[in-house]
Amino acid sequence: MRVFWSTCPKCLKAFVVEWELRHAGVKLICPFCGNRHLPDESAELDERQGG
Amino acid sequence: MPKSEQPQRKAHSKGEGKSLSDYLDLIRDDPAEFRTVSRTVNPLNFDVTAVLKHLDLNKEYPTVQFDNPLNMHGEPSIFPIVTNLWATRERCAEAIGLPRSKAGGELGALFANHVAKKREPVIVSNDRAPVHANVLQGKQADMWMLPVVRHYEMDLGGVILMGLIGHAPGEDFYNCTFVKTFPETGQRGGLTIHSAHMSRMTRLWKNRGERFPVINVLGHHPAFWLGTLNSTPWGDNEYATAGAFMGEPVRLTPSVTWGKDFLVPADAEIIIEGEIGPGERMVVDPFGEISGQYQPQQFAPVMEVTAITYRNGALYQDIFSGHREHMLMASVPREGSIFNHVQERLGNVVAVHLPYSGCARFTAYISIKKTGEGQAKQAAIQAFAHVPNLHVVVIVDEDIDVFNEEDVLWAVNTYVDPDRDIDLIKNVRPPSDPRGIGSSRVIFDATRPTHVPFPTRLRVPPDALARVKLDEWLDKAVKGKK
Q: Which of A18, A24, A27 lies at the smallest CB-CB distance from B296?
């Protein structure tokens, strides 16, 4: 299972998300402030694949 | 409704089944086993898990009852919270009627024996069901009236833990599995379902385009849960398995929403009745899981609440996820199930332990009576076949105590030749874990080699140990004496 980290554009805290949500067109929910944002609106995205 | 307005619980009356409160009565006078917090706590502000974490750091594992929690509206809840119930093996033993002295290696095997003693449930009318003393429907059936706990800082919010019960379309057997319910509103919440049987049921209802009736049971006698946690084949009625562990048939009563088409446990504390819409999904998680890490944010099925029922003086049960009770509540039944499975096939198993260091899920230490080379790997392969989410199996000889991790690691360090005794099984299943450990398995054959001459372990002769009584031979300790 691949994951990525999204940094909330509102509170700038990062949280971990399943890759299925990366391009699903749904808004993520920041667990720290409740802000809803699309992955591409993240202040920062960590989607490294490694390897 | 303030707690003072909740009808008080009556003493256990004749004809009623065992309840959570009946078990708490056994331990509530022992401060090592049961503690209370009477001050007001806000479970959404980590007050509950902060108390539990302090106790855990002190290596204290009492069940804790929070008498005055706030609910999700920020108002005083009518339900006290009970948590950390399964945090010791001794309480797991006691809950199913075994002596505390049977909490070691034999506990798993005794659990496994219980599975075969199924007791068919009995059906009682609603008026004989304590859980139907209070029935809420429509807007009154509000999950936010519950003192839902937010456990960890990255959790999406408060999460209702405990068991979800459902049945497949057209079938009359019930399956129970622990799920997480994220109450987005009072009437709607996302459910994360991990177990194979409940996932299959969800798919079957979805494929028919029908709503999947389910109940969330928030509190019952601990033996009820320990019974439903055993891995049983598809088609087994887990109400009957729970009866084996309760030592009496589980009493069931028709539900409020579906009547006799869905029977619910009559002696539960609180029940949420709801339906999962076919194909509907919402965003849930992160949540602090058994691995000690966060489950990533993901899609999950959606449950819409149809009714909430609760007994007078009901308790709201929660689990300290990612800690001892979360680990033990499934590892103890699993140890017994692995023991039985391997023993039936090879006949040489001595003990099985799923250690805390492996989150009581991913690693098994198994001791065997080895009579020849190859037997260790055969045992490990059987264990993997029986429990798909095991990642590491370490096989040791019968003189190694699998409940003593230092002993096990001594065997690994002295008997294992990495070139010969470590086997990697690749591509067992699609990777399911972000750490990348989901698809491969490792076997450590940490038994003493028998195919070549090999040193033996140090031993002070047993007759010398028997002859020398420590309290007679050691001089009395005198403080400050040089």
A: A18
